[in-house]
Amino acid sequence: MVTDDLLRWRAEFPILDTCTYLVSHSLGAMPRRTAAYLQQFADTWSNRGVRAWHEGWWEVGRETGNILAPILGAAPDTISMHQNVTVAQGIVASCFTYEGSRRKIVMSDLEFPSNHYLFEGFSRYGAEIVYVPSTDPIRLDLQRFIDAIDERTVLVPLSLVLFRSAFITDIRAVVEKAHRVGAHVVVDAYQGAGAVPMDLAGWEADFAVGGSVKWLCGGPGAGYLYVRPDLADRLRPAFIGWAAHESPFEFATGAVRYAANPERFQSGTPNVPSLYSARAGYEIVAEIGVPAIRQRSLALTRRLLDAASAAGFRLNTPTADDERGGSVVIDVPNGQTVADQLIARGIVIDYRPNAGIRIAPHFYNTEAEIDHAMETLRNLVIG
Ligand SMILES: Cc1ncc(COP(=O)(O)O)c(C=O)c1O
User: Does the Cβ of 356 fall within 6 Å of ligand 1?
Assistant: First the structure.
């Protein structure tokens, strides 16, 4: 049975023995194997010293991106690794100019805040930021969003799964409109990757960014940037460094001669320990397969929704399966205090203002954990 196969993975995640861990939309559990990979990094540094660069470290970004590629529905050699989403978005933004008539950046008001902060910064170079409001705080107003994309639009950064409500956006429909008017779509896949099946190539997304902290169980410092392969070689990112040079060890000065995709989008020295630590989570997610993870996730989030509805709690998550990512957001009075009380009882979740308590089961969670969390929540709120 699929569930039994998945539950066998519990032994690989030590934290599951110590608490009810339901916070994988924030920080996925660390695989046991990660410690071995980090030890391998330390041993290589210790025993091989500077020779490590030419014995694997220099290529570790491309190699890590290639383990990730099938999870995102991307071809090999299309992903470069960076510190985080913000850095990756900065590299994307630096591929364009904001001087002519095409200078609009269209975003939803429901976007993750740092996407707003980063692109706002480009208004000093002429970018015109357009926020599309949503009357419903849970859902993107898709038609209104699509209507805002026009011939003056250069970029459309958009989350695949909204961080506050877990609503899944229709990337394909947005790409379709953007391409019709010559704009580029930047998918922020962070809240989707590893939990929701993705097809970046099939969606014809121009760019995708994300990190490894959440559903990918890869830890911090391993952000990624996907660039559509037929677009990549035409782009000239400004925010790059020596690792983006076609022959970095020539140490040629002056203007860069760009490497091919994906190194073309690199900055400097790769974030080697983070890339070692990301590997185990990617391998496990790829081995299980996102469709199997999704099937389990839908069953567990449905159980959460049913328990929340039975208790009369307000839900700030879509109840339709095809609209909902991996988390469930439950709005209760004094949410922050209740969240703290749950955490004090060993039920690890989180709270976001204007949203509620976010609960996120992953493939390693059980029905019993869901029931325990919901019973405790009910007792805390209702008594
Ligand atoms: C959708 C989304 N984008 C971006 C981020 C932040 O990314 P980073 O810290 O890698 O810049 C988060 C973090 O929670 C997120 O949920």
Answer: no
Side-chain half-sphere exposure of 69, counting CA atoms within 13 A: 20
> Closest by alpha carbon to 344, among 308, 303, 380?
380
Q: Give the tens place of pLDDT for each residue, 38-51.
A: 999 999 999 999 99
CA dihedral 340, 342, 344, 347 (to 10 degrees): -130
DSSP symbols for 31-95: PHHHHHHHHHHHHHHHHHGGGGGGGTTTTHHHHHHHHHHHHHT--TT-EEEESSHHHHHHHHHTT
221 lines ligand 1 (CB under 6 A): no
Instruction: List the residue whose alpha carbon is closest to atom 16 of ligand 1.
Output: 163
Here the tokens at position 222 are 């391993």
pLDDT at 3: 77
The pLDDT tens digits of the residues spanning 24-73 come to 999 999 999 999 999 999 999 999 999 999 999 999 999 999 999 999 99
Q: Is the CB of 86 under 6 A from ligand 1?
A: yes
pTM higher than 0.70: yes
Give the distance (Å) from ligand 1 centre to CA of residue 293.
21
Q: Please give the distance, rounded to the nearest whole angstrom, from the Cα atom of residue 210 to the centre of ligand 1.
A: 7
For 262-297, the pLDDT digits (tens) are 999 999 999 999 999 999 999 999 999 999 999 999
Report how far ligand 1's centroid is from the alpha carbon of 112 (Å): 7
Which residue among 114, 169, 352 is best mutated to probe the pocket of ligand 1, counting the most ligand atoms within 8 A of its Cβ? 114
Bridge partners, 198 (sequence order): none
Q: What angle do CA 189, 68, 170 make, to 5 degrees?
A: 25
| Angstrom distance (rounded) from CA 290 to CA 24 | 15
C-alpha closest to that of 188 among 269, 241, 116, 125: 116
Alpha helices of the chain — where are they, by DSSP H? 2-7, 32-48, 60-72, 85-93, 113-121, 142-148, 171-180, 200-203, 229-232, 272-288, 290-310, 335-344, 367-381
**At 54, which amino acid appears?**
H
Give 86 Cα–ligand 1 centroid separation in angstroms: 8
